[in-house]
Amino acid sequence: MDTMKAYVLDGIGDLNLRRVPKPIPGKDEVLLRVIACGVCGSDIPRIYEKGTYRFPTIPGHEFAGIVEEIGANVDPGLLGRMAAVFPLIPCRCCSSCEIGDYATCTSYDYKGSRSDGAFAEYVCVPAWNLIVAPDGISGEELAMAEPAAVAFHALRRGRLEIGDRVLISGAGPIGLMLAQWARAGGASRVLLADVDDRKLDFAKANGFTDVINPASSDVKAWVSELTGAGVDLAVEGAGHPSSWENCLRAARPGGRVVLMGNPAGPMGLSQNGYWEMLRKQLTVVGTWNSDYAEMPKNEWKLAVGAMAEGKIQVRPLITHPVSLDDLRDAIAVMRDRSEFCNKVMWTISKGV
């Protein structure tokens, strides 16, 4: 039996690198040789606190690879092609799937949490989930397609318009991609807030100079000074109550607020925060995942195309490219925050 190296989550906090059977593609699947897989912020609680939906599981849902084998029903032209992978596998039976709204499928599978993902040398995925790479894009950039599509979806939910002033609360990888998308979409000003000065310094190094640390400065006063009435659109990307409230306070009357940060705990709102929504008649919307269907709704194809054309730059956001063998140590660095990380990614270019 052919085997491969993979990180197997055997229980909460019990992540082990070992050899496991190499998967075999089903009739509608391809076998992908993984060339890069990013570590999402959600992977940290998934590995160390909450667990996956079953054990054992191979985590990893931000990935790209090369098609090495195909199932009986798959186009042979995919062999040898590099592709990103939409990790959600819809049930195709629920009311959401009937209208192509796969992100809100009620009975979905998901690579890296509900079934085996790409902290491994190989993974099997349905051919339908592949976004074949255009010319001029690397495997590492392709592996950033998932967070890039999520960020793009959030701004579409917020109805970004040319000339908008935008506040992004949370300056991690998706926050910086939100900032890039906002600028590319015609925002007149992009502001970033985060309680970690290292993230703000990194944002400035990547061209975003309007930054603030809410732990030491008043966000509403700062935004008012820079914009006058407030921002047209605020995106909450930190998953923290104070971040949500800062977005409400920073928004202008009649403005929009998008909630996208995964909450680390209860998301309480003060009475004054609630008044902000009422008195300013704010539009507050949620966002989840991304649209993956036929164009023009396929935000993955739009994201991959934008990366290939240089409209957004994701390679500088990868601060910790590592080999598969070194991935567990890099994940621990993220967990412990022992050094600054923006995006940790295992990649074959690091000697696997």
UniProtKB/TrEMBL annotation:
Q: Sorted alphabetically, which keywords does the UniProt record give?
A: Metal-binding, Oxidoreductase, Zinc
Q: Name one Pfam family in it.
A: ADH_N
Q: Which residues form the Enoyl reductase (ER) domain?
A: 11-339
Keyword Zinc listed: yes
The cofactors it requires, by name, are:
Zn(2+)
Family annotation (InterPro entries): ADH-like_C, ADH-like_N, ADH_Zn_CS, ER, GroES-like_sf, NAD(P)-bd_dom_sf, Zn_alcohol_dh
Q: Which domain of life is it from?
A: Bacteria
Give the similarity note.
Answer: Belongs to the zinc-containing alcohol dehydrogenase family.
Q: What is this protein called?
A: Galactitol-1-phosphate 5-dehydrogenase
